[in-house]
UniProtKB/TrEMBL annotation:
InterPro entries: P-loop_NTPase, Sulfotransferase_dom. Keywords: Transferase. One of its GO terms (molecular function) is sulfotransferase activity. This is Sulfotransferase domain-containing protein.
């Protein structure tokens, strides 16, 4: 775990992170800011497909939908024009820190599913398979301070759910009703999409299409720019396109870890927002 913590501490430079926080977006900009492994890349693809009509001429999605906190370290100019309007950006920031003045899309996901996806994503990239157990990784996730945690992120955005510039969605609804989500996103970001454009964006955000183009969603630009700084060997894997089955986290972690996740939920979203569990939040979003 020590090596993993050291590598992640060097992932973004302090200068680059600070520059990202100072970014001032346009009112027409869209910032996609879920917590890690809660559907960020999926939503990037939806927004980019809608605004371009399905253009796939990019090496990796971060090239066309820049990551605010890491843009400087990747040599990407946040002020630059993009492939199409509206400009779109990725972030994992809470409401408190995210640059203000844009429109925001946040996807929520069951914390256990997000946790397990995060573990699988880091295994083979930031640490070798078998080096860190699921339980030990759970200790790490649960020990993160509120401002860096899943729960702190979720609570910060839930508190802003009535803002007209904020769109909240559940990962489970995206799985259940992708065409409806794509249509809602089009309206929210101001893209006048006919049925043909909606159909293309929906198809290209589907599992089969993204799996077939997995190399365009695998953080290869991030790895090329940051692996050496993190002390990571070349050739690490970080494919983001998996089946994303909802509820898998509950079946693959121990009862004790599930109980600790439930306790953390109660301390944050339960105590401060009256949400009994993730199911209550998901149902409230519809």
């Amino acid at each position: 775990m020590t090596g993993f913590l050291a590598a992640t501490a060097r992932f973004a430079t302090g200068e680059g992170y600070a520059k990202g926080l100072r970014f001032r977006p346009r009112a027409s900009d869209v910032i996609i800011s879920p917590y890690a492994k809660c559907g960020t890349t999926w939503m990037q693809q939806i927004v980019h497909g809608l605004r371009t009509g399905g253009d796939m001429a990019f090496a990796e999605i971060t090239e066309v939908v820049p990551w605010i906190e890491l843009a400087h370290d990747l040599g990407i100019d946040l002020e630059a024009e993009q492939a199409a309007e509206p400009r779109a950006f990725k972030s994992h920031l809470r409401w408190q820190e995210v640059p203000k003045g844009a429109r925001y899309i946040v996807v929520f996901r069951d914390p256990l599913d997000a946790f397990l996806s995060f573990f699988r994503f880091m295994e083979g990239w930031f640490f070798e398979r078998g080096m860190i157990s699921v339980e030990a990784f759970g200790d790490y996730v649960l020990s993160r301070p509120e401002e860096d945690s899943y729960w702190g992120h979720a609570a910060s955005w839930w508190a802003e759910r009535d803002r007209e510039e904020v769109m909240l969605l559940s990962y489970e609804r995206m799985k259940r009703d992708l065409p409806g989500v794509v249509a809602d996103v089009a309206r929210f970001i101001g893209v006048k999409a006919d049925q043909a454009r909606l159909d293309v964006a929906t198809e290209q955000a589907g599992f089969a299409f993204m799996k077939a183009h997995a190399g365009q969603f695998d953080d290869n630009l991030v790895r090329a720019a940051r692996d050496a700084a993190c002390g990571l060997p070349e050739g690490g894997a970080s494919n983001k396109v998996s089946d994303g089955k909802a509820g898998r986290g509950r079946a693959e972690v121990s009862d004790a870890l599930r109980a600790r996740f439930a306790e953390r939920w109660q301390e944050s979203l339960g105590a401060h927002h009256g949400l009994a569990d993730y199911q209550a939040l998901s149902e409230a979003l519809g």
